[in-house]
Amino acid sequence: MFTIKDVCWAGCNLQKPLPVLNNDRYIVLMSGLNLASKSGDHLFPLSLFMEWLSGFCGTSEYQEEVSKIVRVIIAGGIYANQSNENTLNEADVIAASEVVDSFSAAVSAVTPLDLMPGCKDPASIMLPQKPFHYCLFPKATHYKSFNRVSNPYECDIGGFVCLGTSGEPIKDITRYSEIDSNLTAMKKTLQWRHLAPTCPDTVPSTPCLDTDPFTIYNCPAIYYSGNCNEFATDVHKGDEGQTTRIVCIPDFCSSKTVALVNLSNLECYSMKFA
């Protein structure tokens, strides 16, 4: 038996200086579309979302806001969300692929789209997940604005580092610890400098000998987790002045909600389509 006297976390890693923008620029974050579902309850809200994204509905104020969207990121669950207890079989994937491809193409025709896989999507179940196979997207791949990306995913949007997962590591932390909030768990991972501390014990992951793919080397400006039960957001401040907007992206199938982040001031709010 031994006694732990103290624990010293690594703390937030260094952060690139954030650019100063004179105009608003928005990123749309969404997840859990569940397009393989037999139920069509979420299809009307999804149509409303596409009309809004295309600038075909809403007031002139909304349309001006939409014109400033620079990226849409779908953080997993486009085929099936995490609440779906059934694993997709080959027939389910084939039946849903046309809808998924058409939706991805429609979004890519309007604005750049980064599409991440989730644990119930037709991709490798082990983290880090590789991008979707291009054969699933015969229409969307015609657009250079369509990007099949990994999970976890890190990108640079106009000098702002964005980092996130489709939600599995954060849910697992709350499952096996006394942390009961996704938002709190995400703040802890920034302090730990690690995206998935429970890998590979309770979250399957690919064995890596030389490097740890889940180490947070650059403190992100935007840090998100997909397929959450509800929308939540906060700003995390590091000891050396790091500023990170943390976003819990709600499951769209159940919440009909997306999150928007303004790059000019890192403000974040939700928008519901119902």
From TrEMBL:
Transmembrane segments: none
GO molecular function, one term: DNA binding
GO BP annotation list: DNA strand elongation involved in DNA replication
InterPro entries referenced in this protein's UniProt entry, alphabetically: DNA_pol_a/d/e_bsu, DNA_pol_delta/II_ssu
Domain of life: Eukaryota
One GO cellular component term: delta DNA polymerase complex
Keyword list, A-Z: DNA replication
Residue ranges of domain DNA polymerase alpha/delta/epsilon subunit B in the record: 27-233
Family: Belongs to the DNA polymerase delta/II small subunit family.
Name of the protein this chain belongs to: DNA-polymerase-delta
Annotated organism of origin: Pararge aegeria
